[in-house]
Design goal:
single chain; 249 residues; mainly alpha; Four Helix Bundle (Hemerythrin (Met), subunit A); 9 helices; globular
């Protein structure tokens, strides 16, 4: 069992370093799924499809909200975006980390789930959920092994009462820092813009490949341009100024 765990941890460390690119392996299956997109609309009609899309947006919105709560309260040296190696200056056990050990990955899952559900291709949803589980299971093992070595009994005590992935809301402990809108925007604006772009792509490509309707309505164009302007503005503020910088975050 120990040898198997060590092997999974090694795989997790490898996936951690390549986590930006590994999800791209589903692109061929996505291309196939796009040709079957919009099944619910064809079976149940536009009204049901409209409410289904709203549900998908809600699921993904909860995911990005979870990430924003983490990003707004997080102190410096935790919840990093590094990909080269594991880093942690302190063990975060308050806020979202008091109800679930991996809130960022929970947020990622909900964002992913909302987008793939919007395609309305059941087998692609199953594949993505299984791939997410196999992928993040190993990354989580690697991260927790690192934290166990780094923080010892402190980590063991926290992990023993905090679920890994399904939140236990009754365990909420208020964060030690105040919520910072600047930190939240700096950390999460790109993810929110990517999520919005994903829904637009699902609609455009799903209509194109699934219904052979390669058209863009005015509302889609407006949402895309507004999102692009927001992304470029925040990207410039983040990289060229210190307006979004908060000391200690």
């Amino acid at each position: 069992m120990t040898m198997l765990r060590d092997q999974l941890v090694r795989q997790g460390n490898t996936l951690f370093r390549w986590r930006t690119y590994v999800p791209l392996v589903v692109l061929p299956m996505l291309f196939v799924a796009l040709h079957h997109a919009g099944a619910l609309e064809r079976v149940a009609g536009e009204r049901v499809d409209f409410y289904w899309k709203l549900l998908c947006l809600l699921i993904a919105g909860v995911g990005i909200a979870v990430r924003c709560v983490v990003g707004g309260f997080v102190p410096g040296g935790t919840s990093g975006r590094n990909t080269e190696e594991q880093l942690a200056a302190s063990l975060n056990t308050t806020g979202m980390y008091s109800v679930v050990r991996h809130p960022l990955y929970l947020g990622n899952f909900l964002c992913m789930l909302g987008v793939v559900l919007a395609l309305e291709v059941w087998w692609f949803v199953v594949i993505c959920c299984l791939a997410f589980w196999l992928y993040y299971e190993r990354i989580i093992l690697a991260e927790e092994e690192f934290l166990r070595q780094q923080f010892g009994e402190e980590f063991e005590g926290w992990a023993s009462v905090t679920p890994a992935f399904i939140p236990r809301l009754g365990r909420w402990r208020a964060p030690t820092l105040r919520f910072s809108w600047k930190t939240m925007l700096r950390r999460e604006f790109s993810g929110a813009c990517l999520l919005a772009a994903s829904f637009i792509l699902v609609k455009v490509l799903g209509d194109g490949f699934g219904k052979h309707e390669w058209t863009l309505d005015l509302s889609t164009i407006i949402v895309f341009l507004a999102g692009l302007c927001a992304y470029l503005t925040l990207a410039i503020l983040k990289r060229k100024t210190r307006l979004l910088h908060v000391e200690g975050r």
